[in-house]
Write a structure and sequence with these properties.
Elements lengths: L3 H7 L6 H12 L12 H92 L1 H14 L11 H60 L23 H92 L1 H14 L11 H64 L12
Amino acid sequence: QMTSGQYGSVLPSYGSKRDVGKALLQTLAAPSNAVRDRKAPSDWNAALNMHVRLSDKDKNKAETQREASNRLIKELDQKTKSKQAEINRRLQDRITTVAYWKQRLVTEHQAICQEITNLNMSKQKTQQALASTELPTEVSSNCLKNREDREAIDLVQDLVDDELINELNMLSEIQRLLSGRIGDTDSRIQALNGCKAQLEADIRDKEECLRLDDHCYKLNNGTAGLQQVAQPSLYDGHTATVDNHETFSQANLERAEIARVMSCLQRELNDFSINKSNDELQKQSELVGAMFRLRLKELTEAKTGLDGQLEKTNQEISSVEDSLHQLREALRGKDGPLKVATTRFAVRAKRPNVEQTRDHVHDGLRSEINDISSSQDSLRNQIASAEETLHRLLKNKERLEQDIAIKKKSIQIDEQQCLRLRKTLSWRGFRPAGM
């Protein structure tokens, strides 16, 4: 009789009933000298219990696995839903953030567009102011040119010339200043346009980002046409961090704000330069006008004095001419008495012999002849002196008339040409309309 251990060594180990049957057949077909191993009831019960326990164990394990699978499915489903909800929340937050930055960019873009318009208007005013200096420059130059037509002693470097030259120098300096302001304004406009282009590019990117994120936010598990994208990590190399994103937009905003501040300062500088230059030119124009009026007063007073001297000279000439006429008449009046006296003297010289005496008549006639001759000499000397005086008076009259003519021309140049020309400025200066 075989022990249970021997029997177990003969029978192969099979796990199923079919395998047990095959094992029994093989045992029966064994040599006759092989002794079959008989099982005790306890072994049978043990085997049965073992099978039951194994079955329960496998069933319990299957139940546990099934419960774990269900629990895993629920957990993963909840996790997927939570993650998707979290992504939706993050998308919503990101949409809000990007919309916030986009709104700031749009606001700054509107402000910078308005500033570009304002700065262009300021540039136009400055250009108008620069162009408005051409007429004062031409007027001042023509005044100097006209005053070169003064003659003789009146062609002097007076205060009017000095102030006209100062006015031209001031206009030249203002033209240089305003030209520089226009150049600076062009640079500011270029900087503003550059910032405007950067803002527009950033706004376009934000709008596209909002469009894409809003599309992603609206996607759900039931959306038709969805396809799985393989290897999403390929896109990570082309993304920027949130800090980089905000820093980029903040830098664009700061550059635009700085450009606007500098533009505002440039506009204020342009207005200040225009107003200050206009005030200085207006003061200089008033000073030139005052110098013209002062010079005209001097010329008028000088001409009036010369007219008075000419009148007196004419009167004196008339008096001298009358005196000359009287002297010549007096000289001619001495001819008769001289002829009588000399004739008498000659006739009495024919007296005969002793009768030809130096009597009182003789001495009287000689004295009379000498007196008349002396009177004639005195009259001739006086006539010569009067003629010399008359000549000097006529020369002086000619000089006075020439000087008066020069003064008249100087007055005509300053009053009729220069001042009338300067009145065309109608001194509003060169401040553009609306300022």
